[in-house]
Amino acid sequence: MTSTATRVGSSFVPRVTSMVGAEELKLMNRFPHRERPSTWEATAVTREEVLERLARPPLRAVEPSAQANRMFGARLLLDWLMTFPGETWQQRWQRSPVHGQHIASQGWRDAFAAWARPEGRVSRRETLLVGVLALLCADAVRPDPEFLIGSRSRHLRPALETTRDPEGFARLRASLPTNISAANISSGLKTIAEIMACRGGAIEDIVVGDLLLWQSKNPRNSNGRIQLAYTWLRDLGLFPADAPHTLFRISNRTGQLTPADLVDRYELQCRPIRDLLVAYLSHRSVGLDFTTLQALTISLALRFWGDLERHHPGRLSSAACRGVHCLEGPPGYEDRPQASTRWIISGVHRATPRCDRDQNPGQSLLPGPGGVGSGGPRPVGRLGGALPDQRSRVLGKKG
Hints:
It is built from 19 helices and no strands. By secondary structure, it is an all-alpha fold. Helix 9 (156-163) crosses helix 11 and helix 11 (182-199) packs across helix 13. The two termini are 18 Å apart.
C-alpha cells in the first residue's frame, strides 16, 4: 500500500524558471538597442525624390544593367506601396502584407503579384527583390530584423557597403585580423549591413544592444557571424569599456546570479515569503560558495515553501503570508547550515498559523509541532520546529 507521503512526493512537479540565457536578458536591459524612429528624412520624401536619389551617386549602381534593374524594381515597389495608406514610405510598408514577414516568404510576394497582374505589371521575384534592395539602400524603409535575418542575398552587403557608409566599411576592413577567412568576413559584414538597413545610421552608430537584439532573434546555430561582428566593432572602439568581452555562448550562460535570481526561478506566489528568503539568503551568501548557496535555495524555496504552495494553494492565504517577518536565529547558527535551515523553516511555520488564526479563528493554516491545528510546541532536534518531510506527511493526511 502506498502511503500518503509517497503519493505527495511522487506527484510533485515544481514550477522552475530556466536561468539559461539570463545573462543575455540582463545585458539587453543594461545595453538597450536603438528604437526605430516613427519617421526620418529619407522616408518622408515623394516617389520622384526617391527615384532621383537612386539615380545619383552613391546610390547609383556602377553597372548600367544593374542600375536599370534597380530603378525598374524601385518604381514597381513604390507604386505598390502607394496603394496602402500612410504619410511616409515606412508607414505604407508597415500597412502592407510585407510587414512582419521574411524577405523570402511567399505570402507577401503573392500579395504583390495579385496587384501586379491586373495592372499589367511585371511580378517576377527577382524584380521585386531588386526593388526592395533599392529602397533599403535609399533608407526609404527600415524593416523589422526578422525580415532580413537569415536572408541568403549576396547583394545586400555590397550594396549597403557602397551606398550607405563606404568610409566606415573601409575603416572596419582595415582593422580586421589577417587570419580570418573571406567567408567569415563576408558573413560578419553582412550582419552589420542588416543592422544598418533595419536601424539606420552608419557603422559608428551601432550600439551593443543592436548586436544583442540580432543575437536573440537569430537561430542559435548560426550566431557565429553576429559574434564576429560584435568583436570587430568592440575592437574598433565603438562600445563602452563595460561592454561584455564577447557574445560567445551568451544565449546559454546564466551569468552571476543573485539570491533574488535563485529564489525567483521557483515562482513563489507569496511575496513576503519570497522577500524573507531573499533577505536570509543574501545575508548568508557572504560566507558561502555558490554551490552551497544554490543548495540552500533549493531546500528553502523549492522543497519547503514551493512544495507547500503547490499542494495546498487554497490554505496558504495572502493574509498568512503578510504576517511573516524577518527571523533571527540563535548565536552561531550561521556556522551550521542544516541548523539554520531548520530555524528559518520552523520560524515561517510559527508565523503562518498565527496569521491564519486571525483570519479564520479556530483553524490553523499549517499543522503545528503539537499536531494538526495546534500551535503548541513540540521541539524537533535541538532547534525545534517541524521539518519539511514531517509537515508534508501531516498535510497529506489532513488533505
